[in-house]
Amino acid sequence: MFDIDKAISNWLKSLRKHRAFDDGEIREMELHIRDHIEDLMSEGLSKKEAFDKAISEFGEVSEMAQEEFTTQRRKPTIKSFLFSTMLNNYTKTSYRRLLKHPVSSLINILGIAIAIGICVLVYSFGFWVENIDQHHENKDNVYLTTAFINRSGKMQQWGISPRPIGEMMKEDFQQIQNVCRIQENNVVIKLDDKVFQESISFVDPSYLQIFTFPLSDGYPSSLNDKSSIILSTDMAKKYFGENNPIGQDLLVTFNSNEKKAFKVTGVAKKFPSTHAIGFDFLINYGNLDIALPNYNPDDWTQSIGATLIQVKDQEQLAAIDQGMEKYKQLQNAAMEDWKVDSFKFEQLATLYQRSPDINKTISSRYYNTNKMAHNILTILAIFMLALASVNYINISIATAAKRLKEIALRKTIGANRIMVVFQHLTENILTTVLALILGMAFGKFILVPWFEYQNGYSSGFYILDINLWLYLGGVMLVTALISGLYPSLYISSFQAVNIFRGKVKFGKGNLVTKGLLGFQLILSSILIVCAIMFTENGTYLRERSWGYNPSSVLYAQVDNWSSYDKFRNNMQQYANVQLVSGGSDHIGVHKSLKVLRQQEKEFEVSSIMIDPNYLELMGLQIVRGRDFAKSLTADKYSLIVNEKFIEQLSIKNPIDEVFEIDSAKYTIVGVVKDFHYSTFSNEIEPMIFMLADEENYRSIVLKVAQGTEMESLGNLKKEWASLFPEVPFRGGLQEDVWGGYFASLKWHGEFWRMIAYVTVFMAALGLFGLISLNVSGRVKEFSIKKVLGARILHLGKNIVNDYMWLFTLSIILGAPISYYLVGFFFDMVYPYHIPSNFGSVIISGTILIVVLWAVVSILLVRVAKSNPVIGLKEE
Amino acid sequence: MAISKNLTAASTKPIILGILKQGNSYGYLIIKKIKELSGGKMKYSDGMLYPVLHRLEKEGLIISNWVMEDDSVRPRKYYEITELGKQELLQEQAQWFQVNSVLDAIWNVKPTNS
After folding, report:
1. I need a surface site. Which of A419, A654, A822, B16 has the fewest CB within 10 A?
2. Min Cα separation B19/chain A (Å)
3. Terminal CA-to-CA distance of chain B, rounded, Å?
């Protein structure tokens, strides 16, 4: 029996298959058929006949579906054209391609993601550097008073200012709204049984108006009160933990005679991570007359840390500038050897950038260093992007061989060249977008935290920063274009007909691919050499001689001769203490500046004032003349200088040369071998040693028996605590003085090794992509060779041979380039460093060849495992 | 003699609009009417009507409505001509008259002896 419902529902299924009609339309047609069948049956036809007739009169479904489709597309707009047809189709094929070639897609995405991660790091670092001290609301109207001083013919800019100048300027210029004087001194602060050495800032109450440091507790106006103290967040935590510090008393010891209790009346909010200017404790400037003996506010021979002025608007500054002549004369009359050439006002907004050129400023002097680090990172990011793009280009071209037919087909059904290019770029953009997301996460959560942790800063950049996205968007666009344009132009250039005929052959002979691979190898070789050099440099500098012997030397700072004397007597009772010395300065801790005169000439030189045991204790070598006589007075007017001093003053026979210092005549009695006062990141400077006056003793130095350093340090601290329970111990092992320096060297090595790993990894990825495509294109060749009995090693050589000459050429070209470039780079970064050596260049070449073989071996395993029969059967 | 496919296709639009101007109707009824009026000379496959109806609806010349009639067991999708549709029909009529008059003129002219 004919089931009409089943027949109809079958017919409807065929209708649905075409996907041209929606449910309502299908229902409409079903009703049509049913009406028709009903009519036909009423004319006397059987169910089956009626159904067949109705269906046949209804006509071809596919024709209708086609017609319906054209109905749906009746109104083409540019938008619908782009989105509904082209992009849809392109993203779909692009997406499919990504999934179909997971290895090359992964290589591309990973490479670009790593590069983008580094870009995020560059951005965050730049963000930090450029935002330092930009949070002050009055930054454009606040100026630091600086002075240009002519020292031995050289102009120096100083951030300190004469003591009375602030008060006078405030009275003389009505344009000045606010003046703030700042003087930082070292004090001892005591709370209950806690005693700490601290730096305290004596400031005018306008400090908190001039700078934007909001308080979390208390009132800024409390600074008017001379016994109030305002704390930074860190200090509040250090002294009071979680307790509320407001209203608590802190005992401040200014010097051995003066102590004063201060009441905490304010706590500052946490300073932004981008601050160079800051404070630990603020007290009223008026307290200086307690802290300094015989304080005279009108003394032009004295200077203070900083004098800042605030004006209503910047144009008023010119008038003030002109009125500064008066102060210059006052200053120059008071100070013979500190003659001011001119005063200059430095704007707070640009103070951080200007600070590297200013001596003793309240800002930090690291701008240039940071800027250089930023530039190096930028170059690295560009290198990485270049590497990733090269990988992308090479892999695209290599895979093109496999998709020639696809391209030919697209062209045949009407795609023009632009469309093929477009399709290819879509793929590229999809890849970069994926890489962008991955790279963003890599940068934000791994690279930036690691870098900030190692460098001890916090950039405070946030992921929703619009500039970051603009920047990354730009980076992405450029990368996508650079890496995508050439391959897409190249691929789209083939003629469809030639592809179908099998006339187009390529892959092996592409010069651009080879050139790019060579470029990549050279880049890798430069970065590997860098990493090796930085690593070796750490060890090299660690072993470099300081010019003196810091081992088994302990030091401590003392307040004056009497505490030095007491401390020395106590320490000499210990058998382990071999030699004791002291003075007002100490290598690596403190030095002074002296002006030497000889006839009409003046020289500014660093001096170290010590007792006669010092040179022997520190292991400084006398190369000419003699050491100081072992008496505190015999050599009172003798000098011992270093080699650099003689070299710079070009003295042929230094012994018995006479110089005038502070109107007294001094004679050179000896010359010591050059030594590093500071770390190896500073050049050795001319130095002189003199005997210290008793009243200037500030440090004690001990040489102890080898192996007893830690024990002796314990004793040192114990004796100190029993002698001076009120004063915190400041001292330690001489070898630890530059601990931070070696930590930073180690970090340099670590950073560059990381970069080198990434580079090698990226080069390996690229190579892997290229060679695996090469291998998969030669399945038949390898299969035949295998069948004929070729050994696997032979096949390996076969593959390597294709690349060997390129490697050799790159290494030959890359070696001198890396040698000179890295040498140049090192000269820029380190004044003293390991000399460039070809050893590292050879190692880097070896690493690259090992990588080549490693990549080939991985692929050979695949070839070895494959069955030649299957390989030969392949289409 | 059957009317050619092209001509059928070209005339579908004015025919449908014309039928609907006489009153609302649904797909099956429309096709039935066309067949009656042409005496079976316009060879349609019934199904081809629907894409045309949908297109006209998209162009806003007609609108549709599902209606459940009291005397029927099935709902029907009724089409109704809009104002725009009526104007379109006038234009179509004018065009067809023009074509008609041109053809008339050509076929009625006697060849001149030159």
Report:
1. A419
2. 17
3. 36
The verdict on B74 touching A (C-beta cutoff 8 Å) is yes
pLDDT tens-digit readout, A598-651: 887 778 889 999 999 999 999 999 998 999 988 777 888 999 999 999 998 888
Show residues of chain B in contact with A70, CB under 8 Å: 51
Backbone phi and psi for residue A257, each to the nearest 5 degrees, phi listed first: -105, -30
- Coil, strand, or helix at residue A176? strand
Domain residue ranges in chain A: 4-74, 142-363, 369-541+742-873, 553-736
Which of residues 14 through 73 in chain B touch A, CB cutoff 8 A? 26-28, 31-32, 44-48, 50-52, 54-55, 58-59, 66
* Secondary structure letter of residue A592 according to DSSP: E
Sequence-ordered list of residues with C-beta below 8 angstroms from that of A71, at least 6 positions apart, any chain: B51, B54, B55, B58
Nearest to B46 among A31, A59, A67 (CB): A59
Q: Can you tell me the mean pLDDT for A178-184?
A: 92
Q: Cβ–Cβ of B77/A57 closer than 8 Å?
A: no
Contacts of A567 (CB under 8 A, 6+ apart): A556, A558, A700, A719, A720, A723
Can you name the residues that pair with B26 across neighbouring β-strands?
A: B78
* The residue type at A859: L
Q: Which of A781, A814, A812 is nearest to A799 (CA)?
A: A781
ipTM of the complex: 0.88
CA dihedral A678, A681, A687, A693 (to 10 degrees): -20
Q: Look up tokens 């790091």; give the residue.
A: A121
Question: pLDDT tens, A102-155?
Answer: 777 887 888 888 888 988 888 888 888 888 889 999 999 999 999 998 776 778
pLDDT digits (tens, 9 = 90+) for A358-373: 888 888 878 888 888 8
Q: Which residue of A has its CA nearest to B67?
A: A28
State whether B50 and A29 contact (CB < 8 Å): yes
Residues whose CB is less than 8 angstroms from the CB of residue A6 and which lie 6 or more positions away in sequence, other chains included: none
d(CA B96, CA A600): 116
Rounded CA-CA distance A517/A512 in Å is 8
Average pLDDT over all residues of chain A: 84
Chain B residue with CA closest to A36: the answer is B28
Q: How confident is the model at residue A79 (pLDDT cuts 50, 70, 90)?
A: low
CB contact under 8 A, A29 and B54: no
Query: What pLDDT, on a 0 to 100 scale, did the predictor assign at position A213?
Result: 92
Question: For residues B19 and B34, is the Cβ–Cβ distance under 8 A?
Answer: yes
Q: Where are chain B's structural domains? A: 5-107
Q: Which residues of A touch B27 (CB under 8 A)?
A: 28-29, 31-32
What would you report as the CA-atom Rg of chain A, rounded to the nearest whole angstrom?
A: 40
Report the amino acid identity of residue A119.
Answer: C
Question: pLDDT tens for residues A434-491?
Answer: 888 899 888 888 888 888 888 778 877 777 788 888 888 888 888 877 777 777 777 7
CATH fold group of domain B5-107 = Arc Repressor Mutant, subunit A (1.10.10)
> Do A528 and A760 meet the contact criterion of CB atoms below 8 Å apart?
yes
Contact A29 B77 (CB under 8 A): no
Each residue's pLDDT tens digit, A226-283? 899 999 999 999 899 888 989 889 999 888 788 899 999 999 999 988 888 999 999 9
Asked if A820 and A788 count as a contact pair (C-beta separation under 8 A), the reply is no
Both tokens of A445, joined, read 């959560």
Q: Among all residues of chain B, which has the CA nearest to that of A73?
A: B55
Query: Residue A17: which residues within 8 A CB-CB, separation 6 or more?
Result: none
A58–B45 CB contact, under 8 Å: yes
Show residues of chain A in contact with B45, CB under 8 Å: 57-60, 63-64
In A, minimum Cα distance to B31 occurs at A32
Torsion angle, alpha carbons of A248, A249, A252, A258, to 10:
160
Amino acid identity of A697? Y
